Amino acid sequence: MKGFFGIGVESVSKSMNVGSLFRSGHAFGASFIFTVNANYNTRKGEQSDTSVSTEHIPFYKFPDASSLVLPKLCKLVGVELIDDAVELPSFHHPLQAAYILGPERGNLSSAILEKCSHTVKIPTKFCINLGLAGAIIMYDRMLALGKFPNRPTTSRKTSSAFGLNEKQMKSFEVKTPLAELNELKELTLQDD
């Protein structure tokens, strides 16, 4: 994959969530992980970060937004469910990026949002778990910047589910109430 990325959090309180995020970051190949103004207990975090990411990739603790320092050319990308954020499926990931997620019960601070070159949102109805949100962002980055062949397509004739072919599956199909109503109307019209 081209470029590099880091992933971090601001003002989080649940070390298990951070540990989960850092473990995913390690798995997806993050170049560094970080916290900003966060109360992260690495021992508690390691309960969910079974790969012990902090021992394998650089880990930085910044006391506040003003002390956050990123590598040269690295763009800070805020992950936040706000109106003016770009929806993830339309987002073009920078080659050098640091993704930052906010606290479990709150938003990224205005100080962090001001430092962000981009703000992106996962198009969901409401906020999702911090670790899950980070994993989705990193997976999307991998798909966007990785070199993967197109997904294979299969003919409908060869499709199957649970060992059954399409014809066999048809016998289990449940008609919608509207379809039943249409059949009833057709029968009534035939009787007239």
How would you explain this protein's 3D organization?
This protein has 192 residues and is of the alpha/beta class. The chain folds into two domains: 4-145, Alpha/beta knot (3-Layer(aba) Sandwich); 158-191, no CATH class. The chain is 31% helix and 19% strand. It has helices spanning 15-28, 42-45, 110-115, 130-145, 166-170, 177-191, and strands at residues 4-10, 32-36, 59-62, 75-79, 86-87, 96-101, 118-121, 160-161, 164-165. Helix 2 links the parallel strand 2 and strand 3. Helix 1 runs parallel beside helix 4 (130-145). 30% of the residues are buried. The mean pLDDT is 88.
Summarize the model shown:
The protein is of the alpha/beta class and 192 residues long. Helices cover 31% and strands 19% of the residues.
